[in-house]
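Aim 2 progress update. The chain analyzed this quarter is reproduced below.
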Amino acid sequence: MGRLEGRPTSARRAVARLGAVDALLIVNPFASGVDAHRLAAVQAALPAGTETKLTTRPGEATELARAARGLGAIYVFGGDGTFNEVLNGIEADVSLGFLPGGGTSVLPRALGLPRDPARAALRVAGGRTRRIGLGRVNGRRFGFNAGLGLDAELVRRVDELGRRPDGRRPGDVTFARVTFAALLERRGRFEEEIEIEGAGRAAFLLVANCTPYTYAGALALDLVPGASFDRGLAFSAPRALRARDVPGVLLHGLRGRGVGTDALHATDLDRLVARCDRPLPLQVDGEDAGDVLEAVYEAERDAVTVLV
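Predicted structure tokens:
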């Protein structure tokens, strides 16, 4: 399988050259599931005349999406971070097709698209659409989840390990090792350190825009029951967590029962405010968003058109 190389170019110049092209394919060549063979299969499945642009740096997908006006569709082949960049870049009502090219690719899987990118491309090329809502946290859009505390800390720890020699992020096995190490460091104890306005105190906060919250390989983890693209935001927030609780949390998630009984929970919210006792990490669609003392979540109902 061949490597892909993008040529540095201005996002505005790149889109200006599209001319009469009706669709744009944005590709992250460093995503775990993107290579030359898969890209060729995706291109063959999409409508003729679709222009392909490879990103070369973080944030470029946002610029390409923002500069793309007058297009019928924007297809995105990459991971959840690339999907998030596009969601935060679009300014017009354009149909979006998310093609799974990351290690997890939660968003297209939650939309019911096939895990194989070529099959997903064939599906979205059919033109069937639906409207979905999005979430925002401190002004930044997210497609499926935004966690405060533990899961964001795990995302950061994985990122700190760096990328593999091929430029790709570590996978699920590494994430499991990092989780175990975090539990050891905390001696298996995560205590209340977040005040959720109108709800109470919790150890960490999981906010979702759809179900499942995430995946472990092929297994869906429904950690925030009741979350839906068609409603407001939902959250689950354990009051405390011990190492002995982790297997139970995973089992509850696999069975669609959230994170257990000793947790705060609400659904169909328009706004949620969480204040931290100390700066805590925030993750947005699996990307580290830095440390915050306050997180203001807002539902953006009926926000975008997606191809399904």
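The domain at 140-302 is CATH 2.60.200.40 (Tumour Suppressor Smad4). Confidence is low (pLDDT under 50) at residues 12-20. These observations will guide the mutagenesis experiments scheduled for the next reporting period.
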